[in-house]
Amino acid sequence: xxxxxxxxxxxxxxxxxxxxxxxxxxxxxxxxxxxxxxxxxxxxxxxxxxxxxxxxxxxxxxxxxxxxxxxxxxxxxxxxxxxxxxxxxxxxxxxxxxxxxxxxxxxxxxxxxxxxxxxxxxxxxxxxxxxxxxxxxxxxxxxxxxxxxxxxxxxxxxxxxxxxxxxxxxxxxxxxxxxxxxxxxxxxxxxxxxxxxxxxxxxxxxxxxxxxxxxxxxxxxxxxxxxxxxxxxxxxxxxxxxxxxxxxxxxxxxxxxxxxxxxxxxxxxxxxxxxxxxxxxxxxxxxxxxxxxxxxxxxxxxxxxxxxxxxxxxxxxxxxxxxxxxxxxxxxxxxxxxxxxxxxxxxxxxxxxxxxxxxxxxxxxxxxxxxxxxxxxxxxxxxxxxxxxxxxx
Length: 393
Ligand SMILES: *[C@@H]1O[C@H](CO)[C@@H](O)[C@H](O)[C@H]1NC(C)=O
Ligand SMILES: *[C@@H]1O[C@H](CO)[C@@H](O)[C@H](O)[C@H]1NC(C)=O
Ligand SMILES: *[C@@H]1O[C@H](CO)[C@@H](O)[C@H](O)[C@H]1NC(C)=O
Ligand SMILES: *[C@@H]1O[C@H](CO)[C@@H](O)[C@H](O)[C@H]1NC(C)=O
Ligand SMILES: *[C@@H]1O[C@H](CO)[C@@H](O)[C@H](O)[C@H]1NC(C)=O
Ligand SMILES: *[C@@H]1O[C@H](CO)[C@@H](O)[C@H](O)[C@H]1NC(C)=O
Ligand SMILES: *[C@@H]1O[C@H](CO)[C@@H](O)[C@H](O)[C@H]1NC(C)=O
Ligand SMILES: *[C@@H]1O[C@H](CO)[C@@H](O)[C@H](O)[C@H]1NC(C)=O
Ligand SMILES: *[C@@H]1O[C@H](CO)[C@@H](O)[C@H](O)[C@H]1NC(C)=O
Ligand SMILES: *[C@@H]1O[C@H](CO)[C@@H](O)[C@H](O)[C@H]1NC(C)=O
Prior knowledge:
Bound molecules: 2-acetamido-2-deoxy-beta-D-glucopyranose
Strand content: 25-35%
Number of domains: 1
Shape: globular
Catalytic activity: Hydrolysis of (1->3)-beta-D-glucosidic linkages in (1->3)-beta-D-glucans
Number of strands: 25
Structural class: alpha+beta
Pfam families: YJL171C_Tos1_C (PF10287), YJL171C_Tos1_N (PF10290)
Helix content: 10-25%
Radius of gyration: 22 Å
Protein name: glucan endo-1,3-beta-D-glucosidase
Number of helices: 4
InterPro entries: YJL171C/Tos1_C (IPR018805), YJL171C/Tos1_N (IPR018807)
Mean pLDDT: 90
Keywords: Cell wall biogenesis/degradation, Glycosidase, Hydrolase, Signal
Distance between the termini: 11 Å
Order of helices and strands: HEEEEEEEEEEEEEEEEEHEEEEEEEHEH
């Protein structure tokens, strides 16, 4: 009994990790030293013998604050959602908690979209509407002005465009990639896609003005993510090979090249709770579940929301909403701090400190999934033991 009991308590607390509402969500100690595998081959995408390979002989190393999210990122949106404005900023130095505020440099805007003014600077709208493939899913293509249809050239998203449940588009920079190739600047990517760089930088800031209204046109039975909007970041290598592959060798996601979910509804029960989650191996083997912050920001289904995510120099990543946010070409360091601090003062801060990991002990996909099964089996055996104990005691 004394052995079994603590395990049961641990299991129970996993199941009932209740969370509540906050103004600001934060990861600290974000970034670790590790590796991932890049895709080296994408073969016969449209045939049944479609296959991919990852380059396990030459792992890509990353290290330091925010890694691997210090690499280039693409920005992704799922409906129901209307995107009014988007901006990406960099700063020479910014540490949210630094005591010497003079070392914090102002933010300079490097990309901007406005739906109402039809401005798209350093912004390319892409969507998975290209060639279909058995192992890769649909290829990236230019998005038409509705965000989701195929276009033959780059278009600006229409003012007030609503995408529905399950519908997605993505934003990349307007800097074209070199040709596909393992040693080229964007690595290997899918043939004939419009291939653009993601947004670079260890220290970066993404801001959004958006609406997430309740779903009103698609029925619950017809959507796999009914009324579950999201805004998230991917290592931009992922969508250029395959965002939703059937084989994990078709993307660097499985080996941990990086995903950051900024604002995400996780299920159809809690449709007003926006969660922040990272998916990599910084102290976990379970990349599917990822590492969430145990708290949420409220989704306002009837009004416009403004906010985003900040990655600072010291591995602090902060997700926030604030009506004070604006999209000026330059943002004073002190203004950004005051937007965030105002929300912390009024609605609280939830922090998750990530564990320090020196190197990836194991980023191999088959290993980590078998670990998963192993853990599940042990829990099952434990439960059976408990059942016997209760019945025969
Ligand atoms: C940097 O982050 C670490 C770990 O989260 C924290 O302990 C430290 O106080 C931070 N340092 C500064 C200067 O913000
Ligand atoms: C995925 O692709 C790899 C490399 O081509 C192959 O070895 C593996 O068997 C494939 N896995 C599945 C589940 O198809
Ligand atoms: C930031 O911008 C403000 C004006 O908007 C200026 O007064 C200040 O000197 C700038 N700070 C830095 C570090 O450039
Ligand atoms: C965009 O939509 C807003 C709100 O509906 C409207 O006020 C604005 O005039 C529109 N802009 C353009 C360029 O149509
Ligand atoms: C990319 O966007 C910037 C900012 O709007 C613009 O100056 C530049 O000409 C664009 N480059 C291309 C290749 O479209
Ligand atoms: C556009 O974004 C890319 C990727 O972060 C960056 O390298 C480039 O400098 C930006 N262009 C402009 C004009 O700011
Ligand atoms: C689901 O979609 C199908 C095909 O578009 C449509 O015919 C059907 O009416 C939809 N079902 C509901 C419950 O809306
Ligand atoms: C919905 O997701 C939240 C956050 O993970 C969780 O607390 C809640 O239990 C989930 N609800 C259901 C019914 O799965
Ligand atoms: C959106 O749906 C939620 C859950 O059903 C509900 O509580 C909320 O009032 C709805 N929002 C609007 C604007 O109707
Ligand atoms: C942006 O917000 C800051 C402070 O919140 C303010 O000082 C600045 O004037 C605003 N800029 C614009 C263009 O509204």
